[in-house]
Design brief:
Elements: H1 5-41, E1 62-63, E2 72-75, E3 80-84, E4 86-88, E5 94-97, E6 108-114, E7 125-131, E8 136-141, E9 147-148, E10 153-155
Antiparallel strand pairs: 1-4, 2-3, 3-10, 4-9, 5-8, 6-7, 7-8
Length: 157
């Protein structure tokens, strides 16, 4: 405990100086973050996204050809999972299983385009891809020779 008024005053000044330094550092950090946010809002800075991940296809499903997107998925900064790719020749409904963090809270039913390869008598047809909460991506309806995953999106849980 300080004994004199001078010692008390010195202790108060020291405390004030430390507090002032702390608030200056907080203000500088807030200004830096505000500048970064302004750059993003004004389009001067891109928000980095994760790269496409390559899934392990199951049950005979494979990439259709090099002329189309290969199968992939990623989750954007808003928590939306995106699928891509043209696949073919599966022997079962289960196409792939998405990992934890890339799964919907509830089952998703998505419309897709399917086609029987090189058959001029069969037009493109609509199929249905289900994405289940356990991560299973299943072809529920459609022609298995040509299945598009392009454009399938959903919010991850």
């Amino acid at each position: 405990m300080p004994e004199t008024t001078a010692e008390q005053l010195a202790e108060l000044i020291s405390g004030y100086t430390d507090l002032k330094k702390y608030f200056e550092s907080v203000r500088a950090e807030m200004n830096q973050r505000l500048d970064e946010m302004a750059e993003i809002i004004e389009g001067k800075r891109l928000i980095p996204q994760e790269d496409w991940q390559t899934p392990e296809l199951q049950n005979g499903w494979k990439t259709h050809s090099n002329a189309y997107n290969s199968p992939g998925y990623f989750k954007d900064n808003l928590g939306i999972v995106h699928l891509k790719g043209l696949i073919r020749a599966g022997t079962d409904k289960l196409i792939l299983t998405l990992p934890e963090g890339y799964r919907p809270e509830l089952s998703e039913l998505q419309v897709t385009c399917t086609r029987k390869n090189n058959d001029p008598n069969i037009n493109d047809d609509y199929g249905r891809i289900d994405i289940l909460p356990d991560g299973d991506v299943i072809m529920e309806k459609g022609v298995k020779e040509w299945v598009s995953l392009d454009g399938i999106t959903f919010r991850a849980k």
